[in-house]
Amino acid sequence: MFSGCGPQPIPANALEADLHPDDREFAKERKAALRVVAQASLLCHRVQERLVSTETMEKKDQSPVTVADFASQAYIISELIKEFPDYPFIAEEDSNDLKDNKELLNKVLESVRTVKSTMDEESLLVSIDKVL
């Protein structure tokens, strides 16, 4: 039971007909986001199961960037641009580090393929860079 302030969260399985008119506006986006995030969570969990220190690098600000960071960003954007090609996306990573590190690129690609077997290297890099 929701006990916080503000509007009550919308259940993932809510039918569009059950929604308040204000909530129907982004029903398609919500449905796509929930589907894609569920798969990205699975992807991250699979990476975590086999994560070792060599699969983590540091950004210039010393924060860690893992295979899961790149893989989940690539997967999420690649799926959402299929349904929403004109939407702008904001994401944290770019593909420069992957282009400079073939081993990391291969690990990211392998990880994405656990949930999207058709992902190829070019599509992965394009997806990561399809941001504002």
Set out the fold topology.
Elements: H1 21-24, H2 27-50, E1 56-58, E2 64-66, H3 67-83, H4 96-100, H5 102-112, H6 121-129
Briefly say what this structure is.
The chain is mainly alpha-helical and 132 residues long. It is 53% helix and 5% strand. It contains six helices and two strands; from the N terminus they run ααββαααα.
Order of helices and strands: HHEEHHHH
Per DSSP E runs of 2 or more residues, the count of β-strands stands at: 2
- The CATH topology comes to Fructose-1,6-Bisphosphatase, Chain A, domain 1
Q: What's the story with the biggest beta sheet?
A: 2 strands, antiparallel
Task: Write up this protein.
The protein has 6 helices and 2 strands; from the N terminus they run ααββαααα. By secondary structure, the protein is mainly alpha-helical. The chain has one domain (18-129): Fructose-1,6-Bisphosphatase, subunit A, domain 1 (Fructose-1,6-Bisphosphatase, Chain A, domain 1, 2-Layer Sandwich). The chain has a two-stranded antiparallel ribbon with strand order 1-2. A hairpin with a 5-residue loop joins strand 1 (56-58) and strand 2. Helix 3 packs across helix 5 (102-112) and helix 3 (67-83) crosses helix 6 (121-129). The mean pLDDT is 79.
